[in-house]
Design goal:
By secondary structure, this protein is an all-alpha fold. It is 75% helix and 0% strand.
């Protein structure tokens, strides 16, 4: 990352317990929190909501326990990005280039940008679907959304954009209300969660899909750049970890809420075969059980929050990563005239995505391509993440028994992600 974007934190050559093991402070947490919450709320994007809805509709509560187990898995992976960003003061692409060369950096960032573009189209398509629920044409939805997001970036700082993203993402908590209004049976939830049909291949496919929906390649790039852009130092590391942990719990609670809502309605009514591949299909399937008016509004609020915050994150990730690779300024702290490439890439991606979605092109096949792309990219991104964490100076380096645990988590996540992606086209 350019030194003009954020000053590189001084890394002690020997352990500095006083700097790292600072007593937890709510005031400090409030100042540091943001990157973890934003990226985790973006993780519960339109595709993840559809995956959770399919899980509940097809298998009832049998995938509910998995949502709980995935919270620490998500934290383990994203905590490494916090370490790398705070200790090195550099973005993910910069670190890959520094340690492994420009060729690997080009490969990693190039494929990441393609994944971001695919994710952007998926999120905008989801937002267009929400608009159609209320009779708003897709071109009008896209014009308003793209215009608002461009205005947000051009007129705001990193902190203001972070706050807007957190406020928008908070609408995802509406899914908790949706789950409550579905009146789930607690006894059925417990018995279903503990009844796991491991021998069923269809069940294993959805297990893989849920794991693949939790860890996205662009999350690694975004959170590492965000902690750098926020100018966090090693003294902020404990609070940044809590920010990530809290976000991991929140995003998995939201996923569980979506699953519970569909399990308590479609699953309980024996309608598990209902197709839930789009926003409209999910809404049409569950809102009759929640009330045609209120249920649709609640669902629309949650889905809009999920898709909007993900749109912000993937677009900023693509612009920042390309800016790093080009060696130009790539921060929201710079005015548009100071960072024309960064703002130009951000704007072009949003406008092109909006036009593509507004054209009415069928994006069903695109979702399969995005899934495969993310799956194939995940081993590369997580592999570099692990290797870079093992090269940090002490006491921040990944080592010992914990390094072995992390290696197993990364291998399992990447393996299940590839399985889910390839199964989608085979």
């Amino acid at each position: 990352m350019n030194t003009s974007t954020a000053s590189t934190p001084s890394v002690p050559s020997s352990p500095a317990p006083a700097a790292v093991a600072r007593r937890f402070s709510w005031a400090r947490f409030a100042a540091v929190a943001g990157p973890g919450m934003v990226v985790m709320l973006a993780d519960t994007d339109a595709g993840s909501v559809i995956t959770a809805a399919q899980s509940g509709a097809q298998w009832g509560y049998r995938l509910l326990l998995l949502q709980i187990v995935l919270a620490p898995v998500l934290f383990i992976v994203q905590e490494l990005t916090v370490r790398l960003g705070i200790v090195s003061g550099k973005g993910h692409g910069d670190l890959i280039e520094q340690h492994f060369g420009r060729g690997w950096a080009l490969l990693s960032v190039g494929t990441l940008v393609l994944a971001c573009v695919g994710a952007l189209l998926s999120e905008l398509s989801g937002l267009a679907g929400v608009g159609l629920l209320f009779g708003v044409p897709a071109p009008l939805s896209m014009a308003v959304i793209v215009g608002a997001l461009v205005l947000m970036a051009y007129t705001g700082s990193y902190l203001s954009v972070e706050r807007i993203a957190m406020a928008i993402g908070a609408f995802e908590l509406v899914f908790l209300v949706v789950a409550w209004r579905a009146h789930p049976d607690p006894a059925a939830m417990v018995s279903g969660a503990l009844s796991i049909p491991w021998a069923n291949t269809n069940y294993l496919y959805l297990v893989a899909a849920n794991i693949g929906a939790v860890i996205m390649p662009w999350m690694v790039f975004y959170q590492q750049s965000a902690v750098v852009e926020k100018k966090l130092t090693v003294a902020d590391l404990p609070a940044a970890r809590w920010d990530t942990a809290f976000g991991a719990v929140v995003t998995q609670v939201i996923m569980a809420a979506v699953l519970i809502a569909t399990a308590a309605t479609l699953g309980a009514a024996g309608k598990g075969g209902v197709a839930l591949d789009t926003v409209q299909q999910i809404a049409q399937a569950i809102t009759p059980f929640l009330g045609a008016g209120g249920g649709k509004i609640l669902f629309a609020m949650g889905m809009s929050g999920a898709a909007l915050v993900a749109t912000i994150v993937v677009t900023l990730t693509a612009a920042r990563s390309l800016g790093e690779l080009l060696g130009v300024k790539h921060s929201l702290e710079h005015a548009p005239r100071e960072a024309p490439w960064f703002y130009g890439i951000y704007t072009a991606a949003l406008v092109a995505g909006g036009v593509f979605v507004a054209s009415g092109v069928n994006l069903v096949s695109l979702s399969v391509g995005v899934q495969v792309m993310n799956a194939l990219l995940l081993p590369i991104v997580l592999g570099f993440l692990y290797l870079l964490a093992c090269r940090l100076p002490q006491p921040y380096r990944l080592s010992g028994a914990y390094a072995a645990v992390v290696a197993l988590v990364i291998a399992a996540s990447a393996g299940f992600g590839v399985y889910a992606g390839l199964s989608g086209i085979l």
